[in-house]
Amino acid sequence: MNRRQVTPRRDRSSRPRRHWLVRGAAFVLGLGLVGAPLTASAVDPSRGTPGFCPTEEGVTVVIDFGKLGGTAIVRCAPGPVGPGFTGHSALVDAGIQLQGTRRWGEAFICRLENRPAPDEVIPIKGREKYKEPCIDTPPAAGYWSYWWAANGGQWQYSQWGVKNRNAIRGGFEGWSFSLNATAETNPKPRITPRRPNSAPQPTNTIPTQGPSGNNPNEQQQPNNNPGNPGDQGSLPGDTITTIPGNSRPTYPSGSSGGPTQNGATNQPSWPGRPSTPGQPAPTSSNGVPQPGAPTTLPPGLPRDGLLPGGEQPGAPRPGDGDTPTPGSNGDIAWSGGEPSGSSQNVPKGVPVSTMLTGFAVLILLGGAVITAQYRQARRS
Amino acid sequence: MTAYWLPRNLHPAAWWLWALGLATAASRTTNPMLLALILSVVIFVVINRRSDAPWAVAFRLYLSLGAFIVVMRVVYRIIFGGGEGDQILFTLPEIPLPAWAAGIRLFGQVTLESLLGGAYDGLRLATMLICVGAANALANPKRLLKSVPSALYEAGSAVVVAVSVFPQLAESVVRVGRARRLRGSTERGIRAFRAVAIPVLEDALDRSLRLAAAMDSRGYGRSGALTGGARAVTGALLVTGLIGICVGVYGVLDGTTPRYLAGPMLAIGVAIAATGMYSAGRRVHRTMYRPDHWRLAELVAAGCGIVAAIVLFRSSSVDPANLNPSLRPLAWPEVDLLPAVGVLIALLPAWLVPPAANDLEEAGR
């Protein structure tokens, strides 16, 4: 188990060095400014604990990537849960990596564990090539829906924003990516909100069909959500198709087709981005369950099948190490530690491209000032 | 070829296209390094290619307006932005709010992430604003009105009056300030503001009356020999077309609007507006004194701005990550080769375009 966590970290530490070389070579050739995107998706192990909360004290945070593919994450924010302990605090304290929109800050959660990634195509209805820039409010057809539940209760769509809701002590905070869903079909997090040791019969089973929103018995309340601006434009008649296993049709052909416009996404064509298109991502060594393996979570369309080259092989995927694997009794067995996210936070110095751009800006501004003074002198 | 380099004032539309291209490029990114590059390119070209006319000197007012926007965004994040991110810079005493105001937090911990978020967002808006300011500094707003097609005179004069409000105010401020300095006035603060504001307002009123009289005497607003019905049809076509163009341009500029509001809407708007202009221009006949010509230099200036916009558009589909750098985890904003080169192309007019003419006649009215 530990070996598996070490591997991605080693990969990552070797990556920047290569980028510096690539960038240095580009600089020498006079090409100028070459950057490399930072794939940042890892839980912060210094915060929270993996798995369900052991006691009443904390809040369990469930992240269900749903139709984005990948596996679910369950982590515990230890608390203490007081009056000011909002859903946002729970996410942060559980070590979940989150990103808000530029416009609203973290009051509107746009990415969790760097999903949907900036270069990830989300085939929302009518805009099959959509990529989430996280500048403004995400579209109603593709956003992170926010749920809560008491221990042993049912998932409820939150009527409040992430910073406006106080978390329940011992309860659950759920996040489920809502793709092309209406207010009625918003997918609930597919992990039963019940702490394993809180009841004699833990039922941490995961429904084998698609999002539970399709099941009318589980539909506790209409998910009309005035508090969520992303939920306004619900599309009548737009229903989720259930996803059997790892079948591809989760994503309409728009995501895989159209290499003319979208080819850049699927091919590592820009410099400084290591990726090996032909080589399958090391899913098994990476802790992501193999497709078809009995431990697979139902939706689990692995992202590699979706975006070849869209992600570095060996880079930790969301949920690495946090992957709930149903055990013998349907319980969730926890794999232990996580890939370290802290290496992202350690400043490694200013990247070459940033420095070059800074120099260019300084040269231009200096030239402008000199010119202005020269013209001033000539005029007078 | 030497005639190419003779000092002259370019066609105003060329500079507007260049500046709008850069504004479009700026709207595609929140990367502060890229925005700073765009800003410095704009400033460099303006300093090198502007005339000494008062509206050109007013460019620094746009710069201070841009700085004001960034500062306001950052202050807003300090007041309301509480608790986002790990890098705590300092902690202000938090003001407790009642339960119904949950989610609003006053002061408290101020983090680097929230401040940078505000600064990135503000810098984007400020850059777009300064791009428009650059167009106003490089192109004479009144000559822009001259080059509006004759069918668009009525809409065009309204637009030009609106666009030139700020340069004219800036010009007034500069003029009044100079007059005060010549009189030896050393007042500062609120007293100085009073001494500047009243003459500027008076100047604005005087100027509007003069403009109205001048336009009236030149036949603006005259319907000529047109029937009421024909004018109504023409007006409806023009207004509908312009609204379509507005929506389409917004859709093109804002990457998050549905695509059917972008290209198709723009095309429909252009088609309707062209029909309206054709029907209006058929009957309107106006002559022009000393028209601005569209020559190679104009093509260079406009082309450089448009290329920058196109390159940023392309790179937002190739590599969006560096166009919107991550704040959590906090990462250095890296710049890709493609967008940087695209922005630097817009620098070329600083050398490839003839310098502005500075004779008194041009710089005056």
Please name the defining characteristics of this protein.
heterodimer; A: alpha+beta; six-stranded mixed beta sheet; two-stranded antiparallel sheet; 12 strands; 23% helix; B: 365 residues; disordered C terminus; transmembrane (chain B); Energy-coupling factor transport system permease protein (chain B); membrane (chain B); ABC/ECF_trnsptr_transmembrane (chain B); transmembrane helix (chain B)
Provide a descriptive summary of the structure in words:
- The complex is a heterodimer of chains A (380) and B (365).
- Chain A is elongated and about 80 Å long.
- Chain A has helices at 2-28, 87-93, 253-256, 259-266, 283-286, 303-306, 342-345, 352-379; strands spanning 49-50, 59-64, 73-77, 98-101, 105-112, 121-124, 127-131, 142-149, 156-157, 172-179, 325-326, 332-333.
- In chain A, strands 1-3-2-10-8-9 form a six-stranded mixed β-sheet, covered by helices on one side. A two-stranded antiparallel ribbon of chain A has the order 4-5. In chain A, strands 6-7 form a two-stranded antiparallel sheet.
- Chain A contains eight helices and twelve strands.
- The termini of chain A are far apart.
- In chain A, strand 11 and strand 12 form a beta hairpin.
- Chain A folds into two domains: 2-348, no CATH class; 352-380.
- With 380 residues, chain A is an alpha+beta fold.
- Chain B is an all-alpha fold and 365 residues long.
- Chain B folds into two domains: 9-148 and 293-363, no CATH class; 226-282.
- Helix content of chain B is 65%, strand content 2%.
- Chain B contains 15 helices and two strands.
- Chain B has helices at 12-27, 32-49, 54-57, 59-80, 112-138, 141-146, 153-163, 165-182, 189-217, 228-253, 263-281, 296-318, 337-345, 349-352, 360-363; strands at residues 88-91, 109-111.
- Chain B has a two-stranded antiparallel ribbon.
- In chain B, helix 10 packs antiparallel against helix 11 (263-281).
- Chain B is globular, with a radius of gyration of 24 Å.
- Chains A and B meet through strand 4, strand 5, strand 7, helix 4 and helix 8 of A and helix 2, helix 5, helix 12 and helix 13 of B.
